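Hello,

Our lab assistant flagged a job as stuck in the queue for most of the afternoon. It eventually completed. Since we weren't sure the result was trustworthy after the delay, we are filing this so someone can double-check. Below is the sequence as submitted and the structure that was eventually returned. Let us know if re-running is recommended.
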Amino acid sequence: MKKTLLLVGTLLAGCGAYDAGTEAGEAPETMESSAADLTATNCTQLTAASVLASGNDGNVPANTMDDRLDTRWSNLGKGSWIDYDLGATKTVGGIAIAWHGGNTRANTFSVSVSPDGITYTPVFSGKSTGTSTAAETYTFTATSARRVRITVNGNTLNDWASIAEARACAGSVTTPPPTTPPPTGASVVWVGDFETGTRSQWSSTQMVNADRLAVVSSPMRQGRYALKATVKQGDDPINSSGNRNELVRMTREAVGSEYYYRWSTMFDSTFPSAKTWQLFTQWHHEGSSGSPPVEFLVYGEEIRLNIGGNPGVIVWRTPLVRGQWQDFIFHVKWSPNSSVGFVELYLNGKLVLPKRFIATQFSGQLNYLKVGLYRSDTVAQTGIVYHDGWLMARSLQDVLSPTSVVTAP
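-- returned structure --
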């Protein structure tokens, strides 16, 4: 992939880098690809300065930068990753990938970006088409990054990660700077209520399989659909601490902004009781390490709201109820300044946490929303949580349904 093509020069007939000790059952194939197969559409390609990977079988990561489809990077195991250093911070809005064997299997993968190779932010999660060896372009909201990482979680045939060519795509940032005040007269900012029948209202997913974040017609709190989030021990789609399957919404609330969030959560009757953390809603900071500044979690038989990371401050708690929908309205002013930021919480129409001033952001880092279930990997029992009715708005009235009533404690 150079500027417009994934190939320069003539392809060799046959898979010269094939190793009989690699993917089981795979035979050498004849690569008959035209230049059109190697064109990355909708992608202004960025040339990486270097590349590294979590491992390889002799098919090294540099093969994905040689403009040839008869070479590849391969590694066995879900969670295998390949990481490109762009040499400097650039605006990235997509990734173009030519999958080895891409016409015989669909690959499940995610993309994350980093300014420094230490902290990574997820920007895309999905599957390849499984119908072509030609380059496929996957776009996401443009962001600044120096490193771009592709994490492969197996394919429809086996657990191998195999990429022939890959390039990051340039993007343009059109969002206003964080300090820009919200437009006047705006009310509802975003709806994530699953009424599309899909997860399309959300920015991306972090999941090991699609069934772990399933849009279901029952049970639901409102409308026709809700989200069923399931986590089993060992679910680790992003090679991080704990087990998780979560939806991501890149809310990135500006410093000094103020919003109301409405949603409903129901814990399945089998939801495990464990004296450890089980997060079901969190506003995570842009850095990937450390506990988030705002987190709703279950600990033992309690639901808690913790502010400030680890250890943070437990500002509210209530007994865990299983098998019943719990309706949340969360009012937040986002600020790293404890005299400016605050939280306020309504549960089932009752004000349960009066406005409390506290820092709701880490200095220099905006937050983004994650919903589903994220928990300690010591929990062995399967966990199931349902979410519905997500709404983000600028006034209390905006998040109230026509029949809602809110009362003081």
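-- support follow-up --
The delay was a queue issue, not a problem with the job. The result is valid. The chain has two domains: 35-170, 188-399. DSSP finds one helix and 23 strands in the chain.
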